[in-house]
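Changelog-adjacent note: as of this version, every example in the card shows the full chain rather than a window. The one below runs 241 residues end to end.
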Amino acid sequence: MRSADVGLQSYTYRRFPLRRAIEEAAAVGCRALEVFPGHLPADTPQAEVDAVLAHARAHGIRFCGYGVVGVGPDGAERDLRFAHGLGCDYVSIDVRPDDRAAQRAAIAHAEACGLRLGIHNHGPGHHYSTVDTVLAQVEGMPACFGACVDTGHFLRAGQDPVEAVVRLGARALAVHLKDFTAAGAEVAPGAGRLDLPATLRALARSGFSTAYVLEYEADEHDPTPAVRAAVAAVAAALQAV
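Full-length structure tokens:
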């Protein structure tokens, strides 16, 4: 795992094929990708998976994560094994708060594969909208079960992302760096309310050990200018961490 890598959630390029997302991410300085399952489903033929992995390697991109994956009764075994085959560090997940059996099944599969599981908070109205709701799930559970901190969704829910990371501590296993203005408009991470340097410092102090993943959902037909600005902002902020 290389924590200094700047990465990208491929959902940012959901209107484009995965190979194009890889190329665009590499062109703006990313070295890692969290792969959106819509880009690369777990039932993708192995020959295609191998070709995509080769394309990523040729562009200096590794697959740091996979998700967001919904966890059902089988603990998302197929998705987790698929992510392991991609060489991922973690899988970002959504699982019902009351389904402890599914959570424990997923943890068992993750431990077998050497993966981490990050609960993804998804903003107001979601069952994981606040840091308290995430902490309630992960406290007392094995160390591989933690949070994929979506900074933008915490902002939307009235939560301070820096405080969320501090409270999560070592349970902050992955991150989606996302940002919004006070008026609720999505902007490139670091251009809105998100205190990007403080967030990165808090993650580093927590022992964060995977890529710092950007996610940008606006400008879906041409996200590259905003992504380029965000990569530069994260890279500059990491110099001071």
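Structural remarks: The chain has a mean pLDDT of 96.
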